[in-house]
Each structure stands twice: as structure tokens, then as C-alpha cells.
Amino acid sequence: MRLITIALLALLVLIQYPLWLGKGGWLRVGELDKQVTAARVKNEGLKERNAKLDSEVQDLKNGTAAVEERARFELGMIKKDEIFVQILDEGSQVESKPQVIKPAAKKN
């Protein structure tokens, strides 16, 4: 009787091994689940970034406001009859963004 109990216990352990530590075991499934969750979070972040880039591309294609803003701040361009004013704080190493002031309309 004792030999049968030991044999059955050994078979039970052998059956449990693939369930816990095998290729499709619970530990491996838990690890893969964590990887899938991390990939989904990363994909959501990338989708948000792509949506922002897509809206920026559409704005650049369809509107002139984005192009004008980039020309002003990145290239330092101004429109005709505008006055360029740049204010720097004394003792400050950081440059402020340029401000463009439109002159008052001329009266006839």
C-alpha cells in the first residue's frame, strides 16, 4: 500500500511540473501577460504621439497659421510693416521669445 501511495504522489508531481514550469505553464503565462500589458501601454503612447503628429501635418497642409508661427519663432521672420522687438532681462543668460508688434493703421 505504501508503494502505491508513493508512486501516485510521484505521478502527481510529474503531472504538476508542466502545469507550473512548462512551456505553457502558469508562470510563463503570467510573464507573457505582463509583456502584453507593457506593449499595450507603449502602443497607446505611440498612438497618442501619432495623432498629435497627424494633426500637426494636417494643420501645416491646410492652414497658414502653423506655417506662420514656425516662420516667426524658428526662422525669425516678420511680416511687412511689422516691428520686431526683443526684450532681454539684465543679467539673464536665457533669451526670451521675440515679440512682434503691428504698427497702428495709417489714417488718411
From TrEMBL:
Q: Does the keyword Transmembrane apply?
A: yes
Which of UniProt's keywords are assigned here? Answer: Cell cycle, Cell division, Cell inner membrane, Cell membrane, Coiled coil, Membrane, Transmembrane, Transmembrane helix
Q: How does it sit in the membrane?
A: Single-pass type II membrane protein
Residues in a coiled coil are 36-63
| Domain of life according to the entry | Bacteria
InterPro entries reported for this sequence: Cell_div_FtsB, FtsL/DivIC
Q: Pull the Periplasmic topological domain ranges from the record.
A: 22-108
Q: Where in the cell is it found?
A: Cell inner membrane
* Cytoplasmic-facing ranges: 1-3
Give the record's GO biological process terms: cell division
How the protein assembles, per its UniProt entry?
Part of a complex composed of FtsB, FtsL and FtsQ.
Q: What does this protein do?
A: Essential cell division protein. May link together the upstream cell division proteins, which are predominantly cytoplasmic, with the downstream cell division proteins, which are predominantly periplasmic.
Query: Which family does the record assign?
Result: Belongs to the FtsB family.
Specify the protein name: Cell division protein FtsB
Instruction: Please give the organism.
Output: Undibacterium danionis
- This chain is encoded by the gene named ftsB
